[in-house]
Structure formats: structure tokens, C-alpha cells
Write a structure and sequence with these properties.
The protein has 180 residues and is an alpha/beta fold. It has one domain (5-177): TIM Barrel (Alpha-Beta Barrel). It has seven helices and ten strands. The strands form two sheets. An eight-stranded parallel barrel has the order 1-2-4-6-7-8-9-10, surrounded by six helices. The chain is globular and about 40 Å long. The two termini are 21 Å apart. InterPro entries: Aldolase_TIM (IPR013785), GlpP (IPR006699). Regulates expression of the glpD operon. In the presence of glycerol 3-phosphate (G3P) causes antitermination of transcription of glpD at the inverted repeat of the leader region to enhance its transcription. Binds and stabilizes glpD leader mRNA. Keywords: Glycerol metabolism, RNA-binding, Transcription, Transcription regulation.
């Protein structure tokens, strides 16, 4: 699965319905409950969408070996996003897309996160906030892993700037930016 362009991140059911009716290829589920996940993924798969979930934000799910087994074998997600190396490693081991979420809080956090990424070797890194071009470029150069920019992206200029800085894609829950 190649991720590029604008990736819709779903928080509300109204937005989920918009994605189902769109030409967008991917769906990222953020805040949801484990009891809803199977049904939502089935609906998205019926609409030929590829499914990524932020595993750390699924209420009721413990993302250990058994939680990942459930997501992969039962729910049939195509990939996961997580801040945790163990989740990224389990995704890689099970041949689904592994995206490591990295928060650029300060220089020390950035340095430590780059070390962790080099250990876990994710398929993609999601850098938050996604509006700091120099950080996007720094992480891309330091890790040689494709970058997804996310968080605080509010307009087309910020999307363009993130992509010009080395991001291959951006994530946003702002549905007004999905079709740009």
C-alpha cells in the first residue's frame, strides 16, 4: 500500500459517510470503540477503502500480541498507527502497514523518537505537528522512512508546504481539505 496525498482521518460518523461516498482510497480511524470497529471496517471494505487505525486510540482495545491478532485476523485492518515500538513491530511481523507516530515536542524528544524509529523500522512515520517543515525534513533525512505530516494542518498552503518539505502524505480530520 502506497500512501500519498491527503489521507482522511475519521473522528465523526458524518465524516465517515463522506469518505465512503468519495473517491478517496484510504480511511484512518482515530477515536472509536472496539465494539464499533468491526462494523466500520466492513462498511469501508465494501466501499473498496484501505483501512488504517490508530491502535492507541481505540477504546477497549489492549494493543498487545492478542489485540493485534484481533485487528489483523478478525477486523482485517490494512495497517496501524501507534506511538509504541511494540505495536509497530507487531504490525511489521504480521505484514500490515506500520506507521509510527512521532511527536516533535522539543529537540530531545525528537532525537529520542528518531532513535526509536531506527529500531522499529516502520513503513511510514507520522510527524506531529505537521506544520513544521524543517522537522519534517530532518526526520525524513535522519530516518530515510517516508513521512506523513499530521496535526494542526488547516489549509492548502500548509498541505503544500508539508509535501514540499519531504512528506509523502498528510493526515487531517478536516473534511474540507480531503479533496484538495
Amino acid at each position: 500500500m502506497e500512501l500519498k496525498g491527503v489521507l482522511p482521518a475519521i473522528r465523526k460518523m458524518k465524516d465517515f459517510e463522506k469518505v465512503l461516498e468519495s473517491d478517496l482510497k484510504h480511511v484512518i480511524f482515530l477515536d472509536t470503540r472496539i465494539s464499533q470497529l468491526y462494523r466500520l471496517v466492513r462498511l469501508a471494505k465494501q466501499a473498496n477503502k484501505q483501512i488504517l487505525i490508530h491502535a492507541d486510540l481505540i477504546s477497549g482495545l489492549k494493543v498487545d500480541q492478542y489485540g493485534m491478532e484481533y485487528l489483523i485476523r478478525e477486523v482485517k485492518v490494512d495497517g496501524v498507527i501507534s506511538t509504541r515500538n511494540s505495536v509497530v513491530s507487531l504490525a511489521k511481523k504480521n505484514n500490515i502497514i506500520a506507521i509510527q507516530r512521532l511527536f516533535a515536542l522539543d529537540s530531545l524528544a525528537l532525537q529520542n523518537n528518531i532513535k526509536l524509529v531506527k529500531q522499529s523500522k516502520p513503513d511510514y512515520i507520522e510527524v506531529l505537528p505537521g506544520i513544521i517543515p524543517s522537522v519534517i525534513n530532518e526526520v525524513a533525512v535522519a530516518t530515510e522512512v517516508p513521512i506523513i505530516a499530521g496535526g494542526l494542518i488547516r489549509n492548502r498552503d500548509q498541505i503544500d508546504e508539508a509535501l514540499a518539505s519531504g512528506a509523502v502524505a498528510i493526515t487531517t480530520s478536516n473534511n474540507e481539505l480531503w479533496q484538495v
